[in-house]
Write a structure and sequence with these properties.
409 residues, Aspartate Aminotransferase, domain 2, alpha/beta, Aspartate Aminotransferase, domain 1, globular, four-stranded antiparallel β-sheet
Length: 409
């Protein structure tokens, strides 16, 4: 039987356009043979289900933490009160108003609730935004390594991804010149994730302002993925949405997954200029037809409580200190850490193994699961992502095991 070309594009194995065509040789190719990014993690979960004691550092969620009771209670009370019927496709009005307030608190941009569209997670929001902005013939720029779903999400539209390799020399951040060299008449959007996954790179105002000016000058959409922004201390946060001159081309995507320990609740949103928000709302009619109202009531409760994200932020900071205090594997490993986000990055090239080989051996011999970044783009072949997502005792044990494994190679 025949399948559409979409099935190839959403696999993330679509061909990408490389900015070497624009005079920039510092790029990498996303080949059709890229390994499944979650292979090691899936092995670890199978081992756990079989009863093995595996410490899982390969996924971005706090495995041993529960959604706060005030949020759970809001959902159950809502459900018991009969809030389980159809509701507004674009999102419940109370939640859209809460998102507008939260967005202003996080970014400084004043928006109307009608500019806020509710989605089943930030991933769904990114997909919807891409569908409304991109089509065949367009190009979308993104840093590489990138989050593993980015190629499939943005090339599902028929657009071509233009990955720009970043490395430790720039703090794993795009430079203005790299972006300028990559822009062509076909460039329609630039995607940034700050702090980024898997790299943890945090873009400051000084980093972003010249890049945004390039977007303004070339009529390019700025898609800002800010799902980890609440884990950044408030004085260090900066969003493209804060630049007034860029608000007509800025789309902000976020969610409650990381900030409120709600990964399984699937609540995310997009905030965009009103004409785009109207289009995204129409797509939502075709795509998911609205979220459950009791879930949205829980989201309103979550957004009203600033203490939850502060608690998560403090927990992540404590775990980060444990990694730096415990992980010491000599020349085999190099730690890269911006101090922000939910991950620490390890360069394992000194071990003589690729990240996948290192992760596979670590899981088999030490029962610790970390995520190789080769599924995040070719330049991740020697980068290993370590999640700060288990309690301090487990994390300390995991780091000791990583030391042992690396030193025995």
């Amino acid at each position: 039987m025949k399948f559409s070309h979409l099935t190839h594009r959403i696999s993330g194995k679509s061909e990408t356009h490389h900015s070497s065509d624009h005079g920039n040789e510092n790029t990498a190719t996303h080949s059709a043979g890229t390994r499944d990014a979650w292979e090691i993690h899936n092995r670890a979960m199978m081992m756990q289900r079989a009863g093995e004691s595996v410490i899982v550092l390969s996924i971005g969620q706090e495995a041993d933490e529960l959604t706060p009771p005030l949020i759970v209670d809001a959902a159950t009370d809502s459900l018991k009160s009969g809030r389980h019927h159809y509701t507004h496709v674009e999102g419940d009005p109370d939640l859209r108003s809460a998102i507008a307030r939260y967005h202003r608190q996080m970014t400084g941009q004043h928006v109307e609730p009608t500019q806020c569209i509710v989605h089943s997670g930030a991933q769904n929001a990114l997909f919807a935004v891409a569908q409304c902005l991109l089509e065949t013939g367009d190009e979308v720029i993104m840093p590489e390594p990138y989050y593993t779903t980015y190629p499939g999400t943005f090339t599902a539209t028929g657009a071509t991804a233009v990955p720009l390799t970043v490395d430790a020399s720039t703090g794993f951040k795009l430079t203005t010149q790299t972006v300028l060299d990559a822009i062509t008449p076909a460039t329609q959007a630039l995607v940034l994730n700050s702090p980024s996954n898997p790299l943890g790179a945090l873009y400051s105002r000084a980093d972003l302002e010249p890049v945004i000016e390039a977007c303004i000058s070339n009529d390019i959409w700025m898609i800002s993925d800010e799902v980890y922004a609440a884990l950044v201390s408030p004085e260090k946060r900066f969003s493209p949405a804060a630049i007034t001159r860029a608000q007509h081309l800025t789309v902000t995507v976020s969610s409650l997954s990381k900030s409120h320990r709600m990964t399984g609740w699937r609540v995310g949103w997009s905030v965009s200029p009103q004409p785009l928000a109207d289009h995204i709302g129409e797509l939502s009619m075709c795509m998911h037809y609205g979220l459950p109202p009791f879930i949205m009531d829980a989201a309103v409760a979550a957004l009203a409580d600033d203490s939850v994200s502060a608690t998560v932020r403090a927990a992540i900071a404590d775990r980060r200190r444990i990694v730096h205090d415990t992980l010491n594997a000599g020349e085999a490993l190099t730690i890269f850490d911006s101090g922000e986000g939910m991950f620490v990055l390890l360069d394992v090239s000194g071990s003589g193994r690729t990240a996948f080989e290192f992760a596979a051996g670590l899981l088999e011999s030490k029962q610790v699961s970390a995520l190789p970044c080769d599924g995040f783009g070719p330049s991740g072949n020697y980068l290993l992502r370590v999640g700060l997502c288990v309690d301090g005792e487990q994390l300390s044990t995991a780091c000791q095991r990583i030391n042992e494994y690396a030193n025995n190679l």
